[in-house]
């Protein structure tokens, strides 16, 4: 049936996570909406945004309308007021782009589940207030997550690993879950050639410092690497790019207390805009990804698109997503992390090979394809 013959639907998208500042699902939401604008001139969309993201999105398709929904994620207003705000627009379908579906929302919806990391690696901070209220928050999280899984029309999982993890913990039909991979940035011509003339003397990580990101072990492996023969002492820097928060402050304290020989070789530039980050990628020797748990693994794919060789954890979805385009280590074994990093650092041909394979691997993932497959779910 042609699109013009289909009933016009009113579709809502929870875009309170929107843009690169809001972690992986912020970029996912942004790309989904922008690609849908180009794909769908038939249905009408209502894009729910927080005030702080209001000016970050300006519709280019007349069928897309911004709606202010200034309710903080995981808060009581989200549970009570967001459903009332959505109901006002009498939607045919609501797409929640993260698991936090309000328990008082009773209309038709689909949900994107990025991972079950919060189930496996709780990220509460160790303050007195948090220690008192965290058990309650964790219980609410479990209730909200389970209800989102059970009550949704369809579930989008962003990897086969995430789908299997959902099925492992929740009794639902596998047919209810559709795997739709995320995309990667377009490859810039300036990154395609491997340049020997560039001085690349730092190892790069981009992301947050949550416990499951495993940065403490990475730092200990970096320290060990600098004590090994074959790598000149303090020759390389370790650059950890991410917004300053409790977890990054905790990581800095860990470095200070550990009295590492490399403490002056670890740099924390904080948040870097996409434009400036492009240059940071371009001059990196390696991209390191030591994570213990991921749903898709977008950061190493972005590094591959920038012609940076990737050395990654072999945990969860990462071998599925990165394929043979990365060199892998056991993220729980500090010696193994150091060994694999050293191997890649000392083998220029291996780095060139990883770059070429990485550029090919990124071609398997497309934001356009992601949006097309999501649109098909909207139509059903």
Features:
single chain, 380 residues, alpha/beta, Rossmann fold, 2 domains, 6-stranded parallel beta sheet, 13 strands, 16% strand, globular
Low-confidence stretches are 189-198
Instruction: Report the count of strand segments.
Output: 13
Number of domains: 2
CATH architecture of the largest domain: 3-Layer(aba) Sandwich
> Secondary-structure element sequence?
EHEEHEEHHEHEEHEHEHEHEHEHHH
Strand content: 15-25%
Helix content: 40-55%
CATH homology-level superfamily of the largest domain: Glycogen Phosphorylase B
Assign the structural class, choosing from mainly alpha, mainly beta, alpha/beta, alpha+beta, or little secondary structure: alpha/beta
The global form is globular
The strand order across the widest sheet is: 3-2-1-4-5-6-7
What's the alpha carbon Rg, rounded to whole Å? Answer: 22 Å
Mean pLDDT: 89
Could you tell me the CATH topology label of the largest domain. Answer: Rossmann fold
User: What is the highest CATH level, the class of the largest domain?
Assistant: Alpha Beta
Distance between the termini: 12 Å
What's the total helix number?
A: 13
Biggest sheet statistics:
7 strands, parallel
């Amino acid at each position: 049936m042609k699109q013009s013959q289909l009933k016009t639907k009113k579709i809502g998208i929870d875009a309170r996570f929107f843009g690169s500042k809001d972690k992986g699902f912020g970029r996912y939401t942004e790309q989904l909406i922008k690609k849908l604008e180009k794909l769908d001139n038939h249905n009408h969309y209502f894009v729910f945004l927080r005030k702080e993201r209001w000016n970050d999105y300006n519709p280019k398709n007349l069928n897309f309308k911004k709606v202010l929904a200034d309710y903080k994620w995981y808060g009581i207003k989200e549970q009570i007021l967001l459903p009332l705000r959505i109901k006002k627009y009498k939607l045919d379908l609501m797409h929640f782009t993260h698991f936090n579906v309000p328990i008082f929302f009773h209309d038709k919806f689909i949900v994107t589940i990025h991972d079950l990391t919060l189930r496996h690696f709780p990220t509460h901070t160790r303050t007195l207030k948090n220690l008192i209220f965290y058990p309650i928050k964790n219980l609410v999280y479990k209730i909200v997550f389970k209800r989102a899984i059970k009550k949704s029309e369809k579930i989008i999982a962003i990897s086969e690993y995430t789908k299997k993890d959902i099925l492992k913990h929740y009794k639902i039909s596998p047919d209810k879950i559709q795997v739709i991979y995320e995309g990667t940035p377009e490859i810039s011509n300036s990154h395609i050639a491997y340049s020997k003339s560039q001085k690349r003397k730092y190892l790069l990580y981009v992301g947050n410092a949550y416990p499951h990101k495993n940065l403490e072990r990475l730092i200990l492996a970096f320290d060990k690497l600098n004590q090994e023969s074959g790598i000149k002492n303090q020759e390389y820097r370790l650059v950890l790019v991410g917004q300053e928060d409790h977890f990054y402050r905790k990581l800095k304290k860990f470095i200070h207390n550990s009295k590492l020989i490399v403490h002056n070789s670890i740099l924390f530039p904080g948040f870097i805009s996409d434009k400036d980050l492009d240059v940071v990628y371009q001059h990196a020797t390696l991209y390191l990804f030591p994570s213990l748990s991921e749903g898709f693994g977008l950061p190493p794919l972005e590094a591959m698109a920038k012609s940076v060789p990737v050395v990654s954890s072999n945990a969860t979805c990462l071998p599925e997503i990165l394929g043979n385009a990365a060199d892998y280590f056991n993220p729980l074994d500090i010696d193994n992390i150091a060994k694999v990093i050293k191997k890649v650092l000392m083998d220029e041909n291996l780095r060139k090979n990883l770059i070429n394979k990485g550029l090919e691997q990124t071609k398997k993932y497309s934001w356009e394809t992601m949006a097309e497959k999501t649109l098909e779910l909207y139509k059903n």
